[in-house]
Amino acid sequence: MTPAELSTGIKAAARSIGFDLVGIASATAPPGFSRLQEWLARGFAGEMHYLPRRAAAYAHPRHVLEGANSVVMVAVNYRTGDPAEVSGPNQGRIARYAAGSADYHDVLKERLRKLADWLHAQRPGCRTRGVVDTAPLLERDFAQLAGLGWFGKNTMLIHKQAGSYLFLGALLTDVELEPDAPHATSHCGTCTRCLDACPTHAFPQPYVLDARKCIAYLTIELRGVIPAELRSGLGDWLFGCDVCQDVCPWNRKAVRATDAAFQPSADLAPADARTLLLLSEREFRERFAHSPLARPGWIGLRRNAAIVLGNRGDAAAVPALITALNDPSPIVRGAAAWALGALGGPSATAALEDRRQQETDAQVLEELEAALQRAASCASADVSRG
Questions:
Q1: Which helix (H) or strand (E) holds 33?
Q2: Which residues are known catalytic residues?
Q3: Owning domain of residue 285
């Protein structure tokens, strides 16, 4: 086969395996590498320390696969039907990509393995490496170079028909394939809906995300305490956030995904925050061992649940939060204190006072003091209204 024939063949194989989009880029230095360096220099990666540690590897795909000549970019649409509305007082939202029964990493890696097998059958002895979201590869850059879409102002890759709800994967190979034309045109125009809708104002400018303020980062990647000034902005997001994608006009027009692996699970779309808060570590591991929800860890997910319960404002959550106030983790105790301060009421105040007498962690003590002040303010406001 010629490079052109092989390219046509691998695209057909990719579609038959279950990829919705496929394109080919040459394994060259990505145009976004300098932007990555600037982004890191501005501190926008937050506590994702693995990014600066391996930043140099993003300079060329040959750091991912030695001798790489081509990058086959693939995408799977996960824009399923709209999840059920958050209606119950304890309910919270899970980002679409994580609300299904499968981990997209596992699904895409298996499909990339099959695609690599196809290529090895055509070119015995060739070298390949399939990657999904974990290798030092600027996947969105190579997707744009492969003609799969353009960069939106929310930094997501957008495809005219599929929108931006896309899982991206890459198959790197030393085989010379015929590259596709890059997608050179942005179709965002003057629209700023994604920037304007962000609850935590995480976009300092178009096409730039300050991860330190992004709800997805705060609820998934951040291992410590969520800054107090950002907690109310989380609203009812337990894990991740879809706001800047949901408001995008291109997603309103996007075709719906039919892939069974990514259809939303009834118990996660939406999820019960009180149940998540009270999960034991064993229950957490059993339930989420093969789910993206394992990423923030047992402590992180329960921290998120406490904050969501505080934001939801229903006093029925107070008993669960009082239980969490005595959690072994100071991160969970601090989040529970904040939520109890937000809810207020005699039971919450009494529990906060009691915990203050026992607490030895300095940061949690600060949370308790702030929560008591907030609860007192709520009580004063109630008296004034009465």
A1: helix 33-41
A2: 133
A3: 193-379
Q: Which residues of 259-285 are buried (b: 16+ CB within 10 A; e: fewer)?
A: bebbbbeeebbbbbbbebbbbeeeebe
* 89 neighbors 317 (Cβ within 8 angstroms): yes
Give 141-180 pLDDT, tens digit per residue.
999 999 999 999 999 999 999 999 999 999 999 999 999 9
154 marked as part of a ligand binding site: yes
Last residue of some domain: 112, 140, 173?
A: 173
HEC secondary structure over 319-385? HHHHHHCCCCCHHHHHHHHHHHHHHCCHHHHHHHHHHHHHCCCHHHHHHHHHHHHHHHHHHHHHHHH
* Residues 138 and 240 reside in one and the same domain: no
Is 248 annotated to bind ligand?
A: yes
From 112, 145, 173, give the residue that closes a domain: 173
- Same domain as 124, residue 260: no
pTM above 0.90, yes or no: yes
Q: Encode pLDDT of 50-87 as tens digits.
A: 999 999 999 999 999 999 999 999 999 999 877 667 77
**What is the count of structural domains for the chain?**
2
Domain holding 113: CATH number? 3.40.109
Q: Are residues 248 and 140 in the same domain?
A: no
Q: Is 126 annotated as a binding residue?
A: no
Is 194 marked as a binding-site residue?
yes
Give, for 39, the enclosing helix (H) or strand (E). helix 33-41
